[in-house]
Amino acid sequence: METVIIKGNIISAPEFGKLEITENGYLIAEDGKIKGTYQKLPQEYENAFIEDYGDALVMQSFSDMHLHAPQYPMLGIGMDRPLLEWLNTYTFPTEARFADKDFARTTYHRLAGELAAKGTTRVCMFSSIHREATLILMEELENAGITGYVGKVNMDRNGGENYLETTEESISETVRWLEECHFEHIKPMITPRFTPSCSKELMQELGKIAKEKNLPIQSHLSENTSELDLVKSLHPDCTQYWESYQKYGLWNDKTLMAHCVWSDETERKAIKEAGVWAVHCAASNENLVSGYAPVRVMMNEGLNVVLGSDIAGGDHLSMFKNITAAIRASKARRIMDDRKTEFLSVIEAFYLGTSAAAPFFGEKPGFAPGNALHAIVVEDRTLPVVRPLSIRERLERCIYRREHGCVLAVFSEGKKIYKK
Amino acid sequence: METVIIKGNIISAPEFGKLEITENGYLIAEDGKIKGTYQKLPQEYENAFIEDYGDALVMQSFSDMHLHAPQYPMLGIGMDRPLLEWLNTYTFPTEARFADKDFARTTYHRLAGELAAKGTTRVCMFSSIHREATLILMEELENAGITGYVGKVNMDRNGGENYLETTEESISETVRWLEECHFEHIKPMITPRFTPSCSKELMQELGKIAKEKNLPIQSHLSENTSELDLVKSLHPDCTQYWESYQKYGLWNDKTLMAHCVWSDETERKAIKEAGVWAVHCAASNENLVSGYAPVRVMMNEGLNVVLGSDIAGGDHLSMFKNITAAIRASKARRIMDDRKTEFLSVIEAFYLGTSAAAPFFGEKPGFAPGNALHAIVVEDRTLPVVRPLSIRERLERCIYRREHGCVLAVFSEGKKIYKK
Fold first, then answer.
1. Strands A3-15 and A18-30: what pairing?
2. Which of A238, A337, B94, B196 is the most buried (most CB within 10 A)?
3. What is d(CA B332, CA B346) in angstroms, rounded to the nearest whole number?
4. Is A416 on the interface with B (CB under 8 A)?
5. Sorting pLDDT into bands at 50, 70 and 90, what band is A87?
6. What's the rounded Cα separation, in Å, for the pair B58 and B379?
7. Averaged over A98-104, what is the pLDDT?
8. Which residues of A touch B398 (CB under 8 A)?
9. Element (H, E) at A285
10. Is A82's pLDDT higher than 80?
11. pLDDT for position B84
């Protein structure tokens, strides 16, 4: 039995809007699974090795539930362009480069390392249309200790130059890719890019594969208003966008839908009833002027809401930054809603970036016993202070402001995957 | 004659929305003043020493036109609180600490160093009510090579516990402080905190001092709606907020007014006619849910608009981050305005964070000959690329995304004040 004992100020979010704090406590895992959080070291561990981080903060690591791996090298470029121009000028040509396996290897190695160093230990990620690059991405993530799901993208219409599959290729490459997936912690996910990129035949086939192999699904939903119009023209039989997924079996409680900016009451009800997961990508929605998702309303209505960096529509990989982006977006939404909706508190947004995704991975929120150990250690002693701060204030400040090198260690699935 | 020759990719913003780029060029200054930007080294400098930064970007440094120095140690704390609670719980107790000169010395030394390292070489800054701490702040900025203005804050009503002056103290301490200012590059500025904090007698006296000594003025204007109501109740004779400054001689072309979020057409006209400077503090206005200033409309109407970090309502000192905050705020404003106003492009926002403030300091926009040399050198070669990027794209990406240690050097008033 392998035991990991982490000593520090233990912080977790067991519920939306709640923090559990154990000052100078112990977080103990056995064989990769959390045993518990303790104020005093249980006697049985008296002689065990303790990773003592002193006064540092030991918090849950992050889940980034929507990002495009092949857009990583274009982070922070083209932010002035409208969505379609951005896709055609920057995104599709960038993704097309991943036909080159060496380029994919170098880029994905770096991406995986940066995710680990920033404390993102769980992902649901779009790859490109390329089977081989997708396997390389999965291998690099696995080697870096990241866990979660990756999808080879399917798109047989409305692509870019040198960046499109035939329907047959898309299906056969997906089938072959699924056969070739053999990773322990990175699993495959069915990934139709979004309704405008996929013919009905392709959607139908992907729905079948997802059902047969019991695979989770990820795509995009109601990101901006021109997209809504386009989907309506492509699927005149669908009253709403979500129905274009539902009718092909791509709409269930293992489905992630990125954005949901323009999801009205009816669409939100459909999301809730199916148990679909809405992935809020605040930074991306701001950058591409898509709008502000009604996250507070979704939470009140009981929808599953998680966060995504959505690089490279989003401009930062760090989930600290994406948590503050979600707070800001909720404040914009509050202003737009004539101050009728509350903004997200720091603690609520921290929950969305950490615990909210736990059930998607079959776990409980917070550092619940039985969960795999996913944690980061953050130090803030180099930041100036005017008076002693509470642990809660220190967490809040770390979310807004950190110094370079503040992440001392990252644990994923019980293993230390990053050390300063 | 002291000559500085900087070689690299020279980037400046000579006009709102325009960039001037000299790839592999030379930026030359003599005795601290810019002589010119050259594609080829003029013959007369053939034997001169060249600071060769290779392929790095050499761009204008930043002007932070509104920030509260004594709020520096509370950066990133209390962002969930409404303005008044935030002031009373965090801000006033923090500012009150600067009665302690040692605390002021340590904190301001660090602040000045961080400003220099982040490429902010010009500031207009609020200190606290303390004369001595204000002099310490000015000295630390001067020593760090930062230039601009600092104001001892005046407030004789509505302060916090241990944080208020009598009217007489406020005036006599201001007079004494002005006598004791003796810095070369950091000059004093008259600083009534804002109308609710200053009695009529105090405002009147400050207006007189500003006029007699020909000093610039800084304060706050129309930040949030409850503040507007409060000002109306305090000055029933004033139809609008700005009149409460105007009637005491605190409203002219050397006046900076932070925020102007709720400035309507009439107030904007008054700003324009007086030549007052509107300081846009996008991050702060988002964090405190104040609203989104109509920056695009202000620019169209020909107002002077500059940027401020407004720490610690703003959560970051870096002007790179405050430039992206201004872009985001303009995108929020576009959404709120039913897409009738354009958002700020990256290049437009870069202008606001650099050149826009030049005339306030008696200079021309861009790297104009005769301007004092204020520049930073930024390297981006460690960022991943998918294809060769243009200099403009590289600038855009640096604004959104930089790596730790990317600032290689900072020049202020012709001197190198920071080196990696």
1. antiparallel
2. B94
3. 15
4. no
5. confident
6. 9
7. 97
8. 76
9. helix A282-287
10. no
11. 74
From chain A, pick out residues whose CB is under 8 angstroms from the CB of B324: 315
Q: How far does A95 lie from chain B, in Å, by closest CA? A: 9
* pLDDT tens digits for range A26-50: 999 999 999 999 999 999 999 999 9
* Interface test mutation site (partner B, options A75, A77, A226, max chain B beta carbons within 10 A): A77
pLDDT of residue B386: 84
**B203-232 confidence digits (pLDDT tens):** 999 999 999 999 999 999 999 999 999 999
Q: Which residues of chain A does B343 touch, with a Cβ-Cβ cutoff of 8 Å?
A: 80, 289
Cα–Cα dist B89/B74, whole Å? 11
DSSP string across B202-244: HHHHHHHHHHHHT--EEEEES-SHHHHHHHHHH-TT-SSTTHH
Strand B62-68 to A186-188 pairing: unpaired
Residues 6 or more apart from B360 whose CB is under 8 A from it? Answer: B63, B65, B124, B216, B254, B256, B277, B304, B306
A160/B contact by beta carbon, under 8 A = no
Sign of CA dihedral A315, A316, A319, A325: negative
Q: Which of B79, B328, B385 sits opposite A286 (nearest CB)?
A: B328
Are A244 and A235 a contacting pair, CB within 8 Å?
yes
CB-based contact A332 B332, cutoff 8 Å:
yes
B385–A346: do the CB atoms touch at under 8 Å? no
Q: A211: which 2 tokens?
A: 């059902």
**Structure confidence at residue A310 (pLDDT):** 98
**Quick check: A83 pLDDT over 80?**
no
Contact between A96 and A90 under an 8 Å Cβ cutoff? The reply is no
Residue A30, token pair as written in the block: 């056995």
Q: How far is B393 from chain A (nearest CA, A)?
A: 6
Q: Choose the mutation target among A400, A404, A420 for the interface with B, i.e. most B CBs under 10 Å.
A: A400
Whether residue A332 and residue B334 make contact (CB cut-off 8 A), yes or no, is no
**In this complex, is the C-beta atom of A404 within 8 Å of any C-beta atom belonging to chain B?**
yes
Stretch A413-417: mean pLDDT: 97
Ordered domains of chain A (ranges, CATH):
3-61+364-419 (2.30.40.10), 62-353 (3.20.20.140)
Residue A157 to residue A135: CA distance in whole angstroms: 23
Interface check A99 vs B, CB under 8 A = no
Chain A nearest-CA distance from B172, in A, is 28
Residue A304 has a pLDDT of: 98
Nearest to B289 among A343, A387, A389 (CB): A343
Select from A68, A327, A328 the residue whose CB has the most chain B CBs within 10 Å, as the one to mutate to test that interface: A328
The pLDDT assigned to B106 comes to 97
Predicted confidence at residue A68, as pLDDT, reads: 98
Q: Which residues of B touch A81 (CB under 8 A)?
A: none
**Res. A209: pLDDT tops 80:** yes
Token code pair at residue A403 = 């110094």
Contact B292 A335 (CB under 8 A): yes
Residues 6+ apart with CB under 8 A from B102: none
Q: At what angle do helices A346-353 and A319-336 cross, to 10 degrees?
A: 130
Q: Is the pLDDT of residue A386 over 90?
A: no
- Which parts of chain B register pLDDT below 70? none
DSSP bridge partners of A70: none
Contacts of B335 in chain A (CB under 8 A): 289, 291-292, 332, 336
Lookup: tokens for B73: 């140690």
Q: Which residue type sits at A221?
A: L
Chain A interface mutation, best of B81, B91, B385, B386, highest count of A Cβ atoms under 10 Å = B386
Measured on CA atoms in the order A307, A313, A319, A320, is the torsion positive or negative? negative
Residue B255 pairs with which residues in a beta bridge?
Answer: B217
